[in-house]
Amino acid sequence: MDFPILAVLAATFTIATPLVWAGLGAVINERAGILNLGIEGIMYAGAFVGFLTAASTGSLALGLTAAIVAGLAAGALMGLLTVTLGVNQHVAGIGTTLLLIAASEFTNRLLFSSGSQTITVKFDRILSGFFAQYPMTYVAFLLLAPALWWLLRSSGFGLRLRAVGENPEAADAAGIPVARTRYAALMLGSALMAVGGAFLTLSLLGSFTLDIVGGRGWICIALVIFGRWRVWPVVAGALLFGFTDALQLQLAITPFFSAVPNELMIAFPYLVVIAALAIWGRGVRYPGAYLTPYRRA
Amino acid sequence: GGTTGAETPSGDGAESEVPSVFGAFATPLEEPWDGAIHAALQSAEEDGLIRYEHVDNLHTADEMERALRDIISSEDPDIIFGDAFAAEEAVRAVAADFPDTAFAFGSGGEEQAPNFSVFDNWMQDPAYLAGMLAGGLTESGTIGVIGAMPIPEVNRIVNAFIAGAQETNPSATVTVSFINSFFDPATAKQAAEAAIAGGADVLFAERDGVIAAAEENGLPVFGMMVDQKEQSPEHVVSSLLWNMKPTVEAVVAAVAAGKFEASNLGEYSFMVNGGSSLAPINTGTAFEIPADLISQVEARSAEITDGTFETPVDEEAPAGSTTVEG
Amino acid sequence: MPAIALEATSADVASAPLAELVGIRKTFGALVANDSIDLAVQSGEVHALLGENGAGKSTLTRILYGLSQADSGEIRIQGRSTPMSSPADAMAAGIGMVTQEFSLVGTMTVTENLMLAGVGLGRIDRMAARARVLDAAARIGVAIDPDAVVETLSVGERQRVEIVKALFHDCRLLILDEPTAVLVPQDVELLFASIRRLTADGMGVIFISHKLHEVVEIADRVSILRRGRIVASVPARGLQPRQIAAMMVGADAASPGDDTQAAALATAIGLDAHVPAPPAAVSTGRGAALEIRDLTLAGASRPLLDRISLSVHTGEIVGVAGVSGNGQTELVRVLCGTTPATSGTVHVGGADITTAEVPARIAAGLGRLTEDRRGSVVLNLSVEQNLVLEDLDRFRNGPFISRRRISAHVRELMERFDIRASASDPIRSLSGGNMQKVLLARALSRNPTALVVSQPTRGLDVGACDYVYSQLRGLRDNGAGVLLVSEDLDELLELCDRIVVVYSGRIIGELSAAEASREELGLLMTGHTA
Amino acid sequence: MKVLLRASESRWLAPAAVLAAVLLTLLLTAVPIRLAGANPAAAFERYLVTPLTTFGSLGEVLLTATPLLFTGLAVAIAFRVGYFNIGAEGQFLAGTIAASIPALYLPDLPAPIALPLALAAGAVGGTAWAFLPAWLKRHAGIDEVVTTLLLNPVALLLVQGLLNGPWRNSATGFPDSDRFGAGYDLPRLIEGSRVHAGLLLAVLLVAVTWIVMSATPLGLRLRAAGQSPSAARFSGIRVTSLQWRCALVSGAVAGLGGASQVLGVQHQLTASVSNGYGYTGIVVATLGALAAGGVLLAALLLGTISVGAQNASIVLQLPTQMGAIVSSTLLLAAVGFLAARRYRLALRRRRVR
Ligand SMILES: Nc1ncnc2c1ncn2[C@@H]1O[C@H](COP(=O)(O)OP(=O)(O)OP(=O)(O)O)[C@@H](O)[C@H]1O
Ligand SMILES: Nc1ncnc2c1ncn2[C@@H]1O[C@H](COP(=O)(O)OP(=O)(O)OP(=O)(O)O)[C@@H](O)[C@H]1O
Ligand SMILES: [Mg+2]
Ligand SMILES: [Mg+2]
After folding, report:
1. Cα of D76 to ligand 4 centre, how many Å?
2. Which one of B325, C381, D83, D183 is CB 3.0 to 4.6 Å from D114, fit for a cystine?
3. What ipTM, to 2 d.p.?
4. For position B6, what pLDDT does the model report?
């Protein structure tokens, strides 16, 4: 059997898709100075709410919209905690993750007493061969990433966002509404995270099961630092992770490698990202106002 | 454990004569393994055989032990069902402390006198039959299996599936991927895609996520635990079913008769006893299932049921890629 | 300029002050920073706001600019009551401000920083903005590089960016909170020229400074704050710095008994051209307190320090003059042990400290006081903790800290150095002057053999300056050697025995204080060797 | 109306904030509790009162708090010096692995040798897992958040690999290890309760940390380094080296926690030995304001809710997720109100004082 390299490359983009959506959401949050550890829960809520809505209305568009609304609401909650009240961002984020996962699972339990549910329609792949990818994959790489790159670089909103994340005092003195900008960043970023989660249910699987996000949010947090809060390097990091993951899945069933312990194969992507960081990741510099709430004297 | 509270529920006990059962599960009920036990207990309750309460998500041995002691001290049920995997030590210690309560737990170990019985999902029979179908359906000669992790409960199913494939297609290759998680449908799907890229044209979804890959690629797929046909009506050939009802009924009958004692309940999960089965073969698939293949499988199924064929049990981890050729 | 048109046509509006603060009160906890302050700024006037460190000047102007909200009181713009709930309101009302602490985003370019105010949400046009920046810089008469990333600029350059930023958008009232603290004389002149032009066009300016000769030069009106209250508001015409100084500290200028204090103040603010430094006494023979040989620090393209050799003898103050950005900051950092030298040697009192770590430097007798005040203290720790941070091992009791000995030591230092705060206050709440005293106390508490100080009086009021000077002189008289880096020529001429001038990382000249003149120094600083 | 910083906080504000948080949580979670078919008041009694009022469950609260004390302390030590160790989870797991090595290969050692050996092994294991990120941070300035975070799943995979491979249970073939020798059981502290000597060790570490943090020069240096590395460096504090040492100590404490958990509770290694204790440790540490006393309180609080939630599920048949909803809502409400107490509301027109 020839090694199916094209399939591995195609899978790379699929695996990277939720990481790109949620990771870029985290970039937006952190560029505004807020570490959103709610990411894992927001992806989970996006996956669940998106699925629930699509399953009950039969409309994928409504499902995606509902996921986005859930993300916006979660972002607003994070904003209330970290921006308005100035709560420690680690606690607020982890608390939000715990809450959203528990609330999703609770609702799932009440509505479907057990077992996994399936929607009959989902966003299916378009094109064929290597290019057979989900629409949300194309949107992530061809639309979202360039758009956010442009937004951060060349729009007034991006300039404001970077200013409140670097030096909120200076932004305030320049007449930029710091709190409002941070809320906007949190809500936009969280909506992207929710879409990343909804990709799993509405596009990849067409069903919801518990634990569906499986730590992808935490990987995004790592990728954002890996990519130094810049759009394209974060996308590259997601692709690196996706590639190593796709590669290990393929190698695991390739005769020569199947003797290697399975766990070592699965650990491979994590180790590769650490190694890549060790080689290229010197002297990471965080946004200036990272983790710090702002309030005028 | 506490010193109070054991008396309160006994008033309820007077109202009805049926035994009270408590389910104590390590995973959420949504996970198929514990879900199957829960479903059987629920149906026993609907049938008026038992009164039933439950708690799930007892992830660690520590939580399991606390819950069991709490269950006994505050609810004092007649029977506790659950799974003891990864908490054997704790569960057995509690059972030893409360000899008057009947314990029936999923376990890889032996029963423990006087009150600790064990069961397991002995599904090698339907797995073998599904393997036969898979072997007959593959055109490329490669079959992909995506499983959770190489634990005995999974291994013996996968190995039986491989053996079944060998019967109908002696030259087939079976690739086995483990995702090292009970719940990670996204990764399971990617693993299935990798298997397809590696040439597989028939899939066995030991875990959730695989059916979506089969559907997208138009390939035959086998489901697990419950009939998953509705997830992809044109691609799911059949599913391996675990039916805990015979086990539950056996335990309840023994307790009701006051004759419960520690035993290995494993045989109640065997196909012979109706504890497991292959779901009806889908007639509406997008591809054709040869009639002679079906009759071959039905014949083997009948042999299993009448006891003339015994599916071999092999709990060793299967290799990542097994070429079946003997 | 619509504002001017307004001024010209309407006599009514002209009579209403441009901006008026009425009954402003602001408290921070128990501290009353502003106490029923009334203040009016007329169009076309430069209104100087003076007062000791911590008097409440910055607080008041921050309230006017919307950066801080008053507890009570009212702000009127051209007679109309205008709530200032944010700087955006202030900008809309035609107010611009240069804050005392920099308000620049370090990771952004100059252009991006200038665009920040008033930027919308949509597309930004970098090229157009860049052109506007160049245009504004030319209009204001300041040279800035629009593409430079702000954090690569020197403090002086950053201050220029701040000023251009405040004037980038047309405003009718400009607040300048100590804009000249980090500017070299040439830049101060440029700034004043711009201010004069702008006020001639009808703009009003609030100008805060501790340099009284600047105030008399530029101001039309002077208001003096003391402990949060306005104690005087007088026309500046004919006002003498000496009188202002007296009003600031609350001394009665007329009282004859206070001659000495007034004289000291006058000296401190460099009014008397310069008093010849006291003779360098018995000192010079006694060897070097600080000996620098061929000190080099490599930079990206050219050396930042280029074979600097310099010795400071015991009982001597040696000044380092230079336009900012010529290696002074680097020299101080290398001497303080925060940047390793590329080559060369440094000795303190005979001990080689070239590669020594900070504790060893302190042990060898090096005292350090850098220009980066807030970067030298841990802002969230208390005054007491900061005072002993370098020296914790002296206050051990077995493995534990001896709280008793620390508080005794701290009490003594706070008394000796007149630090007006409580020992348990977080140091971030101190005003600039008090923070500098803490740093001075920390540096001097071990009686150093050699002291390296940089910009010791930047942003300090006259009283505090005088205090710092007397401490430095006292140290010198006790036999220590002091290396004083400063951009304030008056200060150098006032204090030093010798002055070296750095240019482009090299020492290009040395003058004895007796023979040095401002002109000569100025020429050397711009790279003209005779 | 506007929001102003308070001049000073009176003592009753903190307890009042917590009380308000409990009330808000009760209000917010009453609806889902009703939907799940239970009485909210009864549920809350189970969540917050029952665990602390019966002897048995009080012991369970202490037992549950024990691993959180270790991981919370580990995180607090690292965070305090400005080293963001998100890897307590992996270090905890590494501790369980390392403690299992003597327990599995020298099963017959007597307790006086076995326990110190296994505990020390746990500490070494945690340190070893913390080593790579700390080394990369020290020598190459590689950000520790990413490396510690990514090593967590790797540690879990290592546990799984060992259990699927060499340490597979010799009796059942299931991927959990054999039971440890009897000499490796941490003694129980109280008759009739599962509380074990690991708690004593944890409390001892809390006390030592408290003394070091508050009464030694090192404690002040750590704070300075954590709050302002550059200023600390200027003051002669070796920030990098302090961070390096605290990173390793943090790993050791988390590893000890792992050892305490396998030796005191599990008596065998299983893949589910950590219930996310390392991640919860971040909440414990930050909720406890990175102070030793605070970690103690926070760990006890989370332990209480977790025991209470389980009891509520059993008695009231509430889905277990309800417990997580209540505890996370309470967590967010509490930190929210505690943050809000710094401010007071003032009517705009009223003159203050
Ligand atoms: N955010 C704050 N919190 C607490 N106290 C503050 C705050 N800002 C200023 N203060 C205090 O208010 C008083 C007035 O400070 P302000 O900065 O207005 O003084 P200033 O006159 O500008 O002094 P300087 O000349 O040193 O700049 C000082 O005692 C200062 O410590
Ligand atoms: N559970 C508790 N038991 C006893 N004391 C406590 C507890 N929680 C908090 N405290 C007290 O709170 C104070 C802060 O705790 P900690 O020991 O961590 O001091 P610290 O490190 O000096 O704190 P800080 O950062 O404020 O200086 C201590 O005085 C401690 O006695
Ligand atoms: Mg000021
Ligand atoms: Mg503390």
Report:
1. 10
2. D183
3. 0.85
4. 39
